[in-house]
Amino acid sequence: MEALSLEAIQEYFDLFITFCKIGFFSFGGGLAMVPLFVVEFQKQGWMKPDQFYNVLSLAQMTPGAIAVNSATYVGNQAGVSVGGRLGAIIGGVFSTSGLATPSVVCIVALSEILKKLKQNKWKQAFFFGIKPVTIALILFAGWKIAESTFFDIEIDKVHYPSIVLCIIVAVIIKFFDKKIHPIALIAVSAILGIVLF
Amino acid sequence: MIYFQLFYSFFKIGLFTFGGGYAMVPLLEKELIDNKKWLTNEELLEIMSIAQMTPGTIAINAATFVGYREKGFLGGIMTTAGVIAPSYLVITIIYHLFDETFEHPIAQKAFMGARACIVALIGHSVWKMFKGSVTDKYGLGIFLIACLLLFVFHIHPILLIIVGAMLGVGLYVALPKEMKNLLK
Known about the structure:
heterodimer; A: 197 residues; mainly alpha; two-stranded antiparallel sheet; 7 helices; 2% strand; B: mainly alpha; 0% strand; globular
């Protein structure tokens, strides 16, 4: 079988190792990984930078973490050349699990360290400083999403319907926070987007 | 069937996360704090702090952390697999059915609607976290400095985290008595 040939297995292994490397050397969220992605893919001959930028916009539009989405796509792309459709599906598994591996290793190690430092005052002081920063970073992420949703940079126009929808959702959350699951709100808003925008 | 629950909770979260790791905070709050009672608000904020300064994707880091904390290594694997699975399925299907310039107008509109909603959800989460966690003048000061550096000077998130850690530790060195009461 083509998808299980020696050449294909070599490619899956390469995918796993490359994405391990990318995962290990990227800090600070999905888009911080982009330069690493571009360099590695060119080296491996999986994808040219401009093709990758298309993949990136797809990855931002689909559910899930941007880096995971990109990894799955590139894994499919690299797998298809050595093993056809089945090769693509397997390639995606290897690239995605490669990306996750450093996270699992680092988080497990860190969890154990933090358990030991539970009552340590220095650790608490460390987090005392970092927690407000985390809140600011989440606020900034929200602002970035707002910017790209409410303003169309290409034609320099404000998209009012999405602002109205956002305000309506904010009012609903204010009064029914405990009763409504955010997934329901997201699903209904997506449908409203199709109908109204 | 705790392992299945861990997988399923994170599968749902992964499926409805649009716009990067931080956009999953409102979903984590609902699912892990309100519904499953696996975490408190304070612990979630700590987990997000850890997730963003550890190598790897924030979403995967947060998922692994929660799973490992609940049910050890296998728990961590289940939550990680759960948060990845929707990405893998959706992208693989798109790869085989369309090409990478896939820009269906209906999908675009649905995506716009979802994002408009997520802005409101994130805003609400930030407000809750702020009220719950920034309760003294030092915390407020660090928050304002962080906002200034981020919004005005566009400093890299990792640098900002280092600044925050230094401010926290620095305050403890400078004002040990006062800080002792604030630390928990």
